[in-house]
Amino acid sequence: MKINTKPLPGMMELLPEEQLEFNRIMAIIQKNYEKFGFTPIDTPVIERTETLLAKAGGETEKQIYRFSKGDNDLSLRFDLTVPTARFVAENFGQLQFPFKRSQIGKVYRGERAQRGRFREFYQCDIDVIGRDKLSISYDAEVIAVIYNIFRELNFGNFTLRINNRNITSGLIEGLGLTEKSAKIMALIDRAEKISAEEFLEQLTDLNLGEKSQIISDFIKISGSAENVICELKNLSQKIKNQQFEKGIEELYEVSELLKMMGVEEKYFKLDMLIVRGLDYYTGTVFETNLNNFKEIGSVSSGGRYDNLSEYYSKEELPGVGASIGLTRLFWCCLLYTSDAADE
To answer: pTM for the whole thing?
Structure first.
C-alpha cells in the first residue's frame, strides 16, 4: 500500500524558490527588530501544559496540541508570548529591564485549516517587559516597528487597527454588565463576521435592554483619530467610568506618540472592534490587515499585558508585544505576486 506523502492539513511545505522568498521576508522582519534594539531569544517548542494555560484559557485550551509523556502533561506552544513570560521569570536575575526581546519560531494551534490559516506556522514576535512599571511609549514603539516592516515589505496598503481594552471593559462595567463581559467581548470580537442586524439580535439575546443600542453604536465609532477620541469623550459623560476614561487617555497618547514616531495616520485607525481574543491583554491592543486581503484577517497583532508573569514570578512584570504571522503573511505574498503577474 502506497503511503500518503501529503503534509497534514494546515501544514505548509515550500519549494526551494518559495523558501528563498520566505527567508527574504523573515530577514527583513529580523533586521527591523534588531534596528529597534530587540535582542533574540529562543524557547522550547514543548512546554508544560500548566505553564501555557496558567493565564490563557478558554478557546486557547481547546486549540492546543496536548499529549502525555510518562507522568508529564505537555503541549506544543500556541504562541511565543507565554513562553517568554516563563523565560523572563526563570532568568529574572540575569536580565536588564526594560527587557526587549525578539523571537521567530513555529507555533501550533488546532484551528480549522482554511484559506490563509494554518495549524503549524511561524510567528515573529517582539516584547518589551518592564520591572514594576513600563512606559506607554513602548506600546507605540512596538506598533511603529510593525509599521516600518510593512512599509519595507511593500505588499500594498495596510491598516494598523488600534484600540484599548480598558475602553471596552470600562464601557461594559459602566453599563453594569460586568457579569456578561466575556460574552459581550466575544460578540464584539466577531462582529465583522456577521451582519449589523445579527449583531444587534445577538446582543438582544443577552437581555441587555436599551444598553444593546449603546454597545451597537459604540462599535461604529470611526473616522480620524481626533474624531474617535472626541466621540469617546462624549460617550464618557454618559458612562462615567474611570477605566473607560483611562482607556481613552491611553489610546490618545499612543496615537499622538505614533505620529511623533513618523507613523502616518493614513496607515492606522482607532477601531472599537479590536478587542483581541486572548485573555491576558489589559490595555493597548492592535491588529494589522493587508487592505487587498482583508478576507484572511489579521497578519500582525499584539498589545499590552499588565503582568503576564504573575503565575511564574512574584515580581510585577508588565509588558507589551507584537507578533507577525509570517506563514500567513507569506501566503498573502504569493497571492499578491500572482495577482500582479495576471495584470
So the answer is: 0.91
